[in-house]
Amino acid sequence: MFTVVGVRFKKAGKIYYFEPGDLSLESGQHVIVETARGLEYGEIVIGPKTVQEDEIVAPLKKVLRVATDEDAVKVQENKRKEGEAFKICEQKIRVHGLPMNLVDVEYTFDINKIIFYFTAEGRIDFRELVKDLAAVFRTRIELRQIGVRDEAKMMNGIGCCGRSLCCATFLGDFEPVSIRMAKEQNLSLNPTKISGICGRLMCCLKYENDRYACGGGAKVSAPAIGREVVTEEGDGRVISVNQNKRTAMVDLGNKKTELPWEAIVEKEKTNE
Q1: Can you say how many angstroms the Cα of residue 24 is from the centroid of all Cα atoms in its chain?
Q2: Distance between CA atoms of 75 and 228, rounded to whole angstroms?
Q3: Of 89, 91, 197, 272, which is least surrounded by CB within 10 A?
């Protein structure tokens, strides 16, 4: 068993576990930690808790110290520098004529490395670009190619629901999304209606899927459309299902009626 705290470095970013050591830490505090990229400034989003060994990535690094006001000022200064670095990199990309789109720039807290995130159709030979950037900034340079989902997460935007993108506001990790999830939720399979601004299937299809797939964990699942059923009002056939209301529209022959799933019993299939 290990005592850990969960630290996040970006809004809606992935949560990493660190050992609190002898420090008295709580959720909401900012701390300085050592990562593979160097020193980083992050926020504790999960207070001290005990986890199993298989829940951590060894070796578990310690929280170095609680962040100070001076550290917060340095972070803001790094943000200003990131804006300047973005403009310089864009200029260098044009000079080298590279078919790439710069998305974001990130300084590590100790300015030990600058990471430039970009998108491109294929592989890019950016070796000369890296040399130019290293000569300007005189620190370690990393160019990282990202996908369209990561681009949307970094840039944010407004989804078709009228709210900020889920990936940029609260989703820490991307999970696989399939067209089957849209089918189970009785949505239109038109790609333009179930795709986000990144062009991929919307993330909400995944995290809302459990409610639809098994009736939100309820004991009674949705009747299949087209199945012959028995109800208190007579025998009929299911013609549509409302997942949110947990009801089904049943054609009884002389009329159509909407009934809760609990009031519907599917007839057993017979082999003819």
Answers
A1: 30
A2: 64
A3: 272
